[in-house]
Amino acid sequence: MYYLEIQKIIKKYSSIIIFHHVNPDGDCLGTQFGLKELIQDNFPDKKVYVIGDSNNILSFLDFEHDLVPNENILRESLGIVVDANFTNRIKNSELITQKKIKNIIRIDHHIEDDDLEPLYSWVDPSYCASAEQVAQLAIKLKWKISKKAAAYIYLGIYTDSGRFFYDKTSARTFNLVSELLKTKFDVQYIHNNLSKRNKEEIIFQKEVLNNYKTEGNTIYYYLSNKKSKKLNISDNNRNRVDFLANISPYTIWIFFIEQDNGEIRVRLRSSIHDIHQIAIQYGGGGHEKASGATIKNKKQIAEVVNKASIISS
Question: For 52-61, how does the pLDDT look when each residue is reduced to its tens digit (9 = 90+)?
Fold first, then answer.
């Protein structure tokens, strides 16, 4: 079974490096830090390093990353990649591509393959979050779960399930969450902080709702660097595709976000359609109803929107 195999591999290594994907979200960070807490609590003889950068998101929880350990430690370490697959989407991937660490395992709920050549992969898109997978792992192995570990893992599940809104939320999700809640971590603290809104967000939401465009059953918004600077929108708040979520009758909503290099990040969401098929055409990926990609320039926006409108028609 996957959980026995993962535990068997973890037991073989005295040091473990946990990686997250670029442009981190609540799931990859919650999974990364939750898994670190679980391993340290249940295998206190092991050194566990979480590497990367939280980009100062979700700062109400402690997401202080470790420095990359020295080469002597790296060459004898197990790498665990969570919530990610291809190296171009993994922070600090050079440690993997340059083979500076001994072995890799992958724990992920994305549907794509990977280029990691892992020692072992546990990939299951039926989970709403990689954090849900880690919760399952801990329960199956009867690991001790601290309040701190539970809080991190819950954050990952709660955010990546769309606060239990998305269709991958299942009876298993709620069963695992009930086990986390038994630790008595402060769930209301997480809810309260995720629900906070500041003036910047309200001004930006007004901008989006006043200037979105539509084509068929697709609704979209393009955020230029010029507009972002004019409104003083922080990097953390630029990706607010949720501002367009579930506006009737639109069943696909898209955010286009101009980057400093001129490329444009694309964030695709849907309540009923498979928009993953669009993302992979532009080198992206994700999930059936929540995916991302990058396009080269503004001219390709019309392409993406047209493909979405055909799917949603």
Answer: 999 989 999 9
